[in-house]
Fold:
Amino acid sequence: MQLEDHLLLLLPILVPFIGAILCIFCWRKVTAQKIIALLTQLGLLASAFMLYRHVALHEIVNIQMGGWPAPYGITLVADMLSCLLLVAGSLAGLAVIIYSFYDLDKPRIRYGYYPVVMVMQMGIGGTLLTGDLFNLYVWFEILLICAFVLITIGGTKEQLEGALKYVTINLIASGLLLVGIGTIYGMTGSLNLAQIAVQAQTMPQLQGLFVVASMFFIVSVGIKAAAFPLFFWLPASYHTPPIAVSAIIAGLLTKVGLYVLVRLFTLVFKVEPGFTMYVLLIMAGLTMVVGVLGAATQNDYRKVLSFSIVSQIGYMLMGLVIFTPLALAGTIYFIMHNMLVKTNLFMVGGAVAQAQGSFKFRHLGGVYKKHPLLAIIFFVSALSLAGIPPFSGFWGKFMLAKAGFESGFYTLAGVSLAAGVVTIIYLTKIWNQVFLKERPENIQTLLPVQPLKNMLQLPMLMLLACIVALGIYAEPFIDITMRAAEQLLNSEMYINAVLNNN
Amino acid sequence: MKTIIISAALRLFFPLFIFFSFYILIRGHNHPGGGFIGGLILVIPFIFHVLIHGADETHDKLFLKRVYSLRRNEQESDMNYYLRNIGYRLRGLVPWYSRPDADKVLVKQFVIEPLHIIPVGLSLSLLAGLIPLFSGEAFLTGLWAKAQLPLIGKVGTTLLFDIGVYLLVAAVVLKITLVMSKE
Structure:
């Protein structure tokens, strides 16, 4: 047992856990909780980065809980994919935590916003690092519970309605996930992902059953990742809670679902030309189309962004369908880019709402004149989301479209480019309605209007710097994601690392 | 629901449930039982207490500890005053020997808040996981002491983990009970 591996793999889970414990010790002490949350997030970011450095040197790193060897014990595995998402996720988390210092009301903090966010970060770390199917399910449940608490904190009627939809559909998804896990366990007698992958290769007679099991995973994880046709809960629930909550849920949770799909379909199931591929293909295409069309018809900042999340999920699925190294690298790049950009756009919306008291387009206007910095942050993030070079979204879409055309997925690549055009349309709509248009007079807004706190722009600038860096220094990042994709496609590496390491 | 029979019976059952929950907690390593179910059993008498007396009285009687001290006489030396206070508190521990004292002053009031037991339980479990790391073993490895304790048997980090779960479950259920019964 190597202590270094052990500590590095455990820290991304333990740091937020300790932060949560300390936050509960300081229940009702708002300032203390803020300090603890900030330190925890910084610690999490540092530990994620250290883990990334370690994995970049040693390829795939794994440890066994309690010293029980691999197929029997609980395994934690880190490869490039999980490390990259961990770093991006903790960056977005740090930004939201800083944002919440200046925008979240006291009652919500007093009812435990910070401990729950910390536990959620722990859940994300656990999901990304676990090498065990059942533990994956448990971490998902932790995420679900945290998201439910975060959405309902505050307890307005709207919020409860959104939370009810969220929980109902996600409970069904969890049930289906459990059925899928049960099927896999019944067939292979194992829950360890590496062991299942070995069994899947050595038992060709069970391929049909593996496809059946994979459908359970596609449906359940598809619900959690908000892919077509089961995305409708997301626009219905994400726009109800305050921005400090929806930014963290929107930025991170759906992407975690997508990570699970990528992990399972590279390691355990195969995306071969056949039933599975067509299901994923149709899901990817329709998710993009329905998402952008939904976003283009909405008249509320948060609702536009909620639908936009759905459309972006389609791009990420697209890489999984094409299944070449370039396409998977594109997916990974796109997930990272999206975590940062989406969180940032949500936070801009929150800042606008703080200054003007609403999210509805007919109440908003003239932000460009009054808060030019905010407008610039939005402008760059929006260009990045729309995929205008040289910003980060361009490289992600470029990699995906190029891989699509190379492998003969002309329709899918065409749909993705068309969806990109509509993305520009709805972002232009936000720009016109919220930033350029004169602000209408004599309006009644639901939320209180207060002067914009300047510090609110700090986390946005931080994320903006990351987004711009991701776009301008694209080459090293693309190399890293290519390496991650190679690791994913050589599932032997993962299996050997987990099963032959004692 | 204040009935004299149940409240009298509860007085008998209170220690019984608590000891039974300890028993379940400790036998949990090799037999059915353990921290989770033990914690649930520990809460049963508290829930009954809430049902019979109401949440406020449960809180006052079971979770609130008031410390009194005697009023200071004029020109009394420090030594004498402290000794008198210690004697007074010792008598307070033994109910049949204590006598009602009119001139006492409330010094301090301790509240046992279930919410504060939750992180204690969590940290005990976390500690049980971390201890093996210091001796170079994997996280969450069970380390066992050589010697056996009477009644309890083998002691190890797994027992510590279970105690953490026990406290956590008991505190969470208690908190839920107290909050729900107030509404």
